Amino acid sequence: MTGNSGPKALTSYILNLSKHKASKRFLILLAQGFLAGMYIAVGALGSLKVAASVTAPGIGNFLGALVFPVGIIAIVFMQAELFTSDCLVMTAVFAGRTKIHKIVRILLIIFLSNLLGAIFIAFLTQASGIFDGAATKLIIDKALHKVNMPFYRLFTSSVLCNIIVCTGVCLSYSCKEEIAKIAVLWLAIVVFILTGTEHVVANMYYLFAALFSGAELTAKDIIYNLAVSGAGNFIGGGIIVSGINYLLAFRDIENSRHNSENMHIKSL
Description:
This protein is mostly helical. The protein has one domain: Glycerol uptake facilitator protein (Up-down Bundle). It has twelve helices and no strands. Helix 11 packs antiparallel against helix 12 (219-267). The radius of gyration is 19 Å and the shape is globular.
């Protein structure tokens, strides 16, 4: 997208993006999803290391939040596929351009490949021994907190998380200059980290890094957190952010399509 902004320009851009994603082969989606899982995990890893190295928790959390955005910035610039931001392709369903089962299939492929990428970095984190005692304690405490959150709190936190994340991604789509894209993404992701809300792909890394570090986590614990946070993220980005933007752009989008169809008919 160029310098155009607002719901109409954003919705048109996402509709074109959705068409492009739908045309991708399975292996391409899998590879790009794996990359995105790795990128988010790298951002989370850096954030944990910084936060654990500072004795004052508030300052540590703030400095860690400044590091985390490198992951999603890499995803946007390297055109990887991240489940949370890809929830925006639900716009194509609202616009009647595709069926929901096709979007669900794409999102499931991306979700599973994000998981594989995050697990891979979690394994390398443990195998390389880069976590000291403070970082190990931090990741285990964080993971145990996540799997013991009540359903309602976990779900609503996940909804809020992806409202924040997808707002940042939408803002980046509206920017022409790369430095502007970086700035809006950076600010949005710092807000997400500081709020402590639940991002399913980041949680994939946190939970498996904790598991490999000796945390007493069960398969049920991990599935509970990822299923609830994934559903909440989908609602936040795929229903609320994309849905409201589409409603705001609906009349302009539909009028443009009808005008185009009428012009085509007249030319026949």
